[in-house]
């Protein structure tokens, strides 16, 4: 499986608390949750639905997994008009969680990955069928990028500057070169950028 990531973030790189409720994630005093609600046009929403339908399996960090399990994991297709493909994909396809603290889950089809995450993820990638998709899960996404395990990443950038909140890329971290393979902007100013990791950047030497 090809490992792909999809992340919604603001122009200043914040990905925290993008969901439909203001109190989804209030870590570190974050008070500007729900910032992605209503952003993006019909074409962008269709792209998101099509992405979920390509998944052969899902890989989550613990926090995002628990948010998804408590929302999408409690729904049937009838509960989410217009988002039926996402509900079906999440509730019928295998889900893997990278966590040292989550022992088990009631969400059907869930496996908590053992210690030795790099080996476990590489084993999943070696399996046939669709994409191994990571949605949200910022800490996990950064770790996967650092360990050269990401094949393709999609950034959905909402034209907002929040000025607070956890960012996908911290102020200090490993560097990364990317090849842009697709880009578009929707009618509401949301940009969708698809990248392939391309090793480390080259710098001018003295």
TrEMBL record:
Residues 13-37 are annotated as: Disordered. InterPro entries: DHFR-like_dom_sf, RibDG_C, Riboflavin_Biosynth_HTPR. Residues 3-191 form the Bacterial bifunctional deaminase-reductase C-terminal domain. Pfam families: RibD_C. GO terms for biological process: riboflavin biosynthetic process. GO terms for molecular function: 5-amino-6-(5-phosphoribosylamino)uracil reductase activity. This is Dihydrofolate reductase. It comes from Microbispora hainanensis. The lineage of its organism: Bacteria, Bacillati, Actinomycetota, Actinomycetes, Streptosporangiales.
